[in-house]
């Protein structure tokens, strides 16, 4: 991805959103700083990118209260997502590539709502790759916990409170057919029914076991063209906890290091990546920042680092 004389280097904006208001455990609020300590800016600059670290947005504290009407911390979740939405939308409007450093995965509502708004404004199609151990398709009626980090995909598809479902200016923010979920291996019974009803394309771990990561990614990336904005929402619990312990919601049996690298390299090969979330990194559960360093390693692969000496 070296810039040519006629093509200026791409500008990447790092946007820290340090909150765990949507999560089941405290600590994801420390994720942005752990990613910075792991050298995310310097690692991306090594790939001829101009990297602006915009610092952290500032939102309400986590009140750590029980759910109300099936939602935990709804007002605070809305506030943080609006901040994420506004920062990501401004970055896209400037022609930059935003990387949201979370924070928990409830923030995917704000980030992807901003991407959806931008795509409508500029007449582009949208493809969302949701790299996660969980489907994140709970609603207030079926959630076992009320934690909104288990609800962002449902909210983006129009199932949830209007304050979240309408954040992009349109409901649903994205059509379910725009989503490809990869690495899924923990889905509540009610979620499974809704995911099937919405006809979301899911490449779960059994599919990856049987068919391989390469085949899953070929299908997930199929039909992309130069009018498609590709957004990757990377929940660090996508990875097997044996290599990535620094998350609050570990689920055994995730992608190995090489499977994850192949996933990222195939995304990079498309040349279509236009926005990114990195979420659910929880340094309180990590060992000497190894999960943050692995996450940065994988993000670097999204921008051209490869194990092959490619021509």
From TrEMBL:
Binds 2 manganese ions per subunit. It comes from the Bacteria. This is Arginase. Pfam families: Arginase. PANTHER family: ARGINASE. GO terms for molecular function: arginase activity. Pathway: Nitrogen metabolism; urea cycle; L-ornithine and urea from L-arginine: step 1/1. It catalyses: L-arginine + H2O = urea + L-ornithine. NCBIfam families: rocF_arginase. It comes from Leptothrix discophora. Belongs to the arginase family. Its EC number is 3.5.3.1. The keyword Cell division does not apply. Keywords: Arginine metabolism, Hydrolase, Manganese, Metal-binding. Its cofactor is Mn(2+). The keyword Transmembrane helix does not apply.
């Amino acid at each position: 991805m070296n810039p040519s004389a006629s093509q200026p280097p791409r500008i990447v904006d790092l946007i820290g959103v340090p909150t765990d208001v949507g999560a089941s455990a405290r600590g994801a609020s420390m994720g942005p700083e752990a990613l910075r300590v792991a050298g995310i800016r310097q690692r991306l600059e090594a790939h001829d990118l101009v990297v602006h670290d915009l610092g952290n947005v500032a939102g309400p504290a986590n009140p750590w209260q029980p759910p109300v009407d099936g939602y935990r911390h709804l007002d605070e979740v809305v506030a943080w997502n609006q901040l994420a939405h506004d920062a990501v939308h401004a970055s896209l409007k400037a022609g930059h590539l935003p990387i949201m450093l979370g924070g928990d995965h409830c923030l995917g509502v704000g980030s992807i709502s901003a991407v959806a708004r931008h795509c409508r404004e500029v007449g582009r199609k949208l493809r969302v790759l949701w790299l996660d151990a969980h489907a994140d398709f709970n609603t207030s009626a079926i959630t076992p916990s009320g934690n909104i980090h288990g609800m962002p995909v449902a909210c983006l598809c129009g199932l949830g409170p209007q304050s979240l479902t309408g954040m992009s200016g349109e409901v649903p923010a994205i059509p379910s057919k725009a989503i490809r979920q990869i690495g899924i291996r923990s889905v509540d019974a009610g979620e499974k029914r809704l995911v099937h009803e919405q006809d979301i394309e899911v490449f779960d771990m059994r599919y990856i076991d049987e068919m391989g990561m390469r085949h899953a990614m070929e299908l997930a990336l199929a039909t992309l063209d130069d009018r498609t904005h590709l957004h990757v929402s990377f929940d660090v619990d996508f990875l097997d906890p044996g290599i990535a312990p620094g998350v609050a919601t570990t689920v055994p049996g995730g992608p190995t290091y090489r499977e994850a690298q192949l996933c990222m390299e195939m995304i990079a090969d498309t040349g279509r990546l236009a926005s990114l979330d990195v979420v659910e990194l929880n340094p309180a559960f990590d060992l000497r920042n190894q999960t943050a360093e692995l996450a940065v390693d994988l993000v670097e692969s999204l921008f051209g680092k490869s194990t092959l000496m490619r021509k």
